[in-house]
Write a structure and sequence with these properties.
Alpha-Beta Plaits, single chain
């Protein structure tokens, strides 16, 4: 008995229909079990990221040089200007001490007047990420 091409096509179509009817997709329910410490870690990261708005804020650079002098300048600055937070940033080949986190240039300039009394070479910067 010879099978015609039309019968083959019908057979394959029928078989394909039967296979697709019995095929099931994934369930929609997904259960995620995570450690509660993970959520705490995410919250801490969100707090840190919220306080670091580098592109939108102005800072005052008070020092650029080697690491030991940068640490000394930062400690000295923290004693003199307790209301301003400071950080050391490494930009090849120097360590730079940045203080403050000012929203506007005017606010940075007002603080720069006081800071220049102690650090004559201080100037305003707007860091890029």
């Amino acid at each position: 008995m010879k099978i015609s091409p039309i019968q083959k096509a019908l057979f394959y179509s029928f078989a394909l229909c039967i296979i697709t009817i019995n095929t099931k997709a994934q369930d929609r329910k997904v259960t995620v079990n995570q450690d509660p410490k993970f959520e705490q870690l995410l919250n801490e990261k969100r707090k840190i990221n919220a306080s670091i708005a580098v592109n939108e804020r102005y800072k005052i650079q008070i020092f650029s040089g080697d690491t030991d002098k940068a640490k000394k300048a930062l400690n000295d600055c923290r004693q003199n200007f307790t209301d301003l937070d400071g950080t050391i940033v490494f930009n090849t080949p120097n360590y730079k001490v940045w203080i403050g986190n000012f929203r506007t240039r005017i606010e940075a300039e007002r603080n720069l007047i006081e800071i220049k009394k102690k650090y004559e070479t201080a100037y305003i910067i707007k860091p890029q990420k």
